[in-house]
Design goal:
Elements (H helix, E strand, L loop, with lengths): L21 H16 L9 H26 L4 E3 L4 E3 L19 H12 L3 H14 L7 E3 H25 L9 H13 L13 E3 L16 E3 H5 L2 H11 L3 H16 L10 E3 L5 E3 L1 E2 L6 H14 L2 H18 E2 L2 E2 L2 E2 L10 E3 L5 H8 L2 H18 L5 E3 L4 E3 L7 H13 L3 H17 E2 L2 E2 L2 E3 L4 E2 L5 H15 L12 E3 L5 E3 L30 H10 L3 H6 L11 H4 L25 H9 L2 E5 L5 E5 L7 H24 L5 E5 L8 E5 L14 E7 L12 H4 L3 E5 L5 H10 L4 E5 L29 E4 L1 H14 L3 E5 L18 H15 L28 H7 L11 H5 L1 H22 L2 E4 L2 E4 H20 L3
Parallel strand pairs: 25-26, 26-27, 27-28
Antiparallel strand pairs: 1-2, 3-4, 5-6, 6-7, 8-11, 9-10, 12-13, 13-14, 15-16, 17-18, 19-20, 21-22, 23-24, 23-29, 25-29, 30-31
Bound molecules: 1-deoxymannojirimycin (DMJ).
Length: about 950
Amino acid sequence: MSEAGGGRGFGYSVPQRAPWSLVAATAALCLVSATSVWTAGASPMSREEKQKLGNQVLEMFDHAYGNYMEHAYPADELMPLTCRGRVRGQEPSRGDVDDALGKFSLTLIDSLDTLVVLNKTKEFEDAVRKVLRDVNLDNDVVVSVFETNIRVLGGLLGGHSLAIMLKEKGEYMQWYNDELLQMAKQLGYKLLPAFNTTSGLPYPRINLKFGIRKPEARTGTETDTCTACAGTLILEFAALSRFTGATIFEEYARKALDFLWEKRQRSSNLVGVTINIHTGDWVRKDSGVGAGIDSYYEYLLKAYVLLGDDSFLERFNTHYDAIMRYISQPPLLLDVHIHKPMLNARTWMDALLAFFPGLQVLKGDIRPAIETHEMLYQVIKKHNFLPEAFTTDFRVHWAQHPLRPEFAESTYFLYKATGDPYYLEVGKTLIENLNKYARVPCGFAAMKDVRTGSHEDRMDSFFLAEMFKYLYLLFADKEDVIFDIEDYIFTTEAHLLPLWLSTTNQRISKKNTTSEYTELDDSNFDWTCPNTQILFPNDPLYAQSIREPLKNVVDKSCPRGIIRVREESFRSGAKPPLRARDFMATNPEHLEILKKMGVSLIHLKDGRVQLVQHAIQAASSIDAEDGLRFMQEMIELSSQQQKEQQLPPRAVQIVSHPFFGRVVLTAGPAQFGLDLSKHKETRGFVASSKPYNGCSELTNPEAVMGKIALIQRGQCMFAEKARNIQNAGAIGGIVIDDNEGSSSDTAPLFQMAGDGKDTDDITIPMLFLFSKEGSIILDAIREYEEVEVLLSDKAKDRDPEMENEEPPSSENESQNQSAEQIASSSQEVDLVDQESPEESSLNSHPESLSPADTDNAASISPSEQNSNPTESHETTSLDGECTDLDNQLKEQSETEEDSNPNVSWGKKVQPIDSILADWNEDIEAFEMMEKDEL
Ligand code: DMJ
């Protein structure tokens, strides 16, 4: 496909093959026409500025890659805070996230094709030689099949694809003889034993040396896998088959996809998050487009693009229709239950779904892509990065951000689709934020908490594989890339596979799934080309006009205005369902709604109020669903209130040379001393106290006077240490854990409790650091002697001039916060504003946590509802509620069944067994959701 106007072409368009069928081709055509007609909108960015930003991306990549190669290689990943390699087994286990690490120089392999995209051909040649020389794929390590496939197999295949492209050009890689492909094949064979299940779905983990199930393999006992884990293999496996002629890989990946397709929930056409690999039963029946499912959908559409097999497109379109019908609530994408798709399964979204607008661009459905992207961008503007999870009213749900690339990916594809320079400005913001908040002297560090700005000692390989590729391509003109990007498709890890593979080694028999469809419902194409083709040429401000109403969606969010109220609720005269946060036990109208939803209010003798739902007593199935959601919201509200009673984490920011505020450590707060959220931060040089445990009068008061004292944990109460350093003239204290190797990466933070006495005499701020974070400061002292830190509730702006500045005032910030609090308190519900930092993910520490502050409890309970924090689980705990509900439903159903086998729900009649089965599924799903982790 040729270049369009002064703009750029679209990345999936090289049909040197026949079967490019109507829809994808048309979608691509739409996108190009959109690009070519762009004439107005946001002010265009000059060629110079684009080049400047492109160069900035190159410099940032050098910083990340250079530090990895210098300080971490051949380890899998760089630990950018401690400036060393992450070697599995040598660091405390982080759980599943470590399953990506196979002692195979992950970051180097994942970076291979990025080097070529960024025009670093010489470095690519060196990197390939290193991979061939150093990488061993036969380690006795248990790795994730999914991660190994997308990062390592994909990385080797992307490297091979560009190596042969370069060789053909005749300058570089002339010595190359398919060695990366041979490695890929070796790895492919190592992964195949994972597919030895009756379903054909792969085991989630495999031992690279010993495979599955052998005693020494330490794997093969798992029963479940995620849908994305089983459904994100076809691109890499088919490419491997087609490059090598060994058809087995493509066959296995197809079989897994066929099985997932067979298992889709037939009435909703949705898939769940996890599935039993032996029975094919859905284990988690919630469904969305983010964590656990995301790239399954991506690979159906891209498999069609790469392989030209219509059945993949048909499957994708069927799922997409269901997604747009149930999950998409523009601009939100909210998980639902596969059996009850009108019922939301969550009130929050995860960061992984940020890839979805990019996929919608590939499909050609631009409008919802623009809307969701704009919503995500506003969340980013608020928190600098996309938190791992955020609520429907845009509060932080999980505060980490591991430098994920999905939003940059969607930004790139939206720019390709619309040519709107707005998306270049978005990219510029991403670059600025990365440099300002994530850049550390030794690479880029993941955000541990986007609210405090604190870091994690982690730089994932996907940051190099994806982030820099998409950002560079966003600002690059055609001539800035040494090959035609349009000849390739991006895998989910942004590895490049050539589209000519579609006509190579086509020996796999395609399953004829088309006959399974009665007729392809093409109503879902309503959103695609006809709209974009008509609207873009006629109205170049199209994208802007879609974004405009969403401009303040995050700042001025009102949950009820955003969340889709189901179609049924709009039935004439019907009011939107009652939300838990709005509920007031003294409001007769609310009590009436509760009754309709089958929820009874029981006033307990001790003054508490208990809510119990009897679905059978609801006025209709819709009211019963509303009731279930209401109860679920109550449960979430209650757990949030409990969270809010805890103090949020704090930040220790190293501001002296050479850190200049770039390294931010997560610190635990104290329940005594200066409250850093209410006062100016404290800035000072650090000094170790003597004795180091701070348990007696200091013998070196002159050393700590006017400084922030470092004290070791243990041997006396935290408050006693604080008094001793305060008496010696310290202006603050940092307690460092005495458990060697402890780290906030692996242990939950906690707050330091007082000593049970009055602690009003302690006026200095006290923070706690785990041993690993503490040793970063101790190492800095050894190396630079003078180390200055800032103790605060939230990291302050990093600035190379920081050391020359007066400590920045936090007054404006606290003013902003109180403004937000005032705004929020004007709502009817008596809830403390959930905006950070009140909303904490801080955990309690049994050793030192004092009883919850009961004064807070009253102020954060829903009005009129007594929720004693120590006992609130009785009224809203998930387990208690579900069991209660379950039993009562059973009792009810038994009585009802005798007299009336069918329960009438207004217009609908549903057999009681099916209601019970459905409700039990919902309950199971809620229980699973409680355990849910990204
Ligand atoms: C990447 O490894 C891949 O994009 C994957 O599909 C899920 N997301 C991570 C990065 O966030």
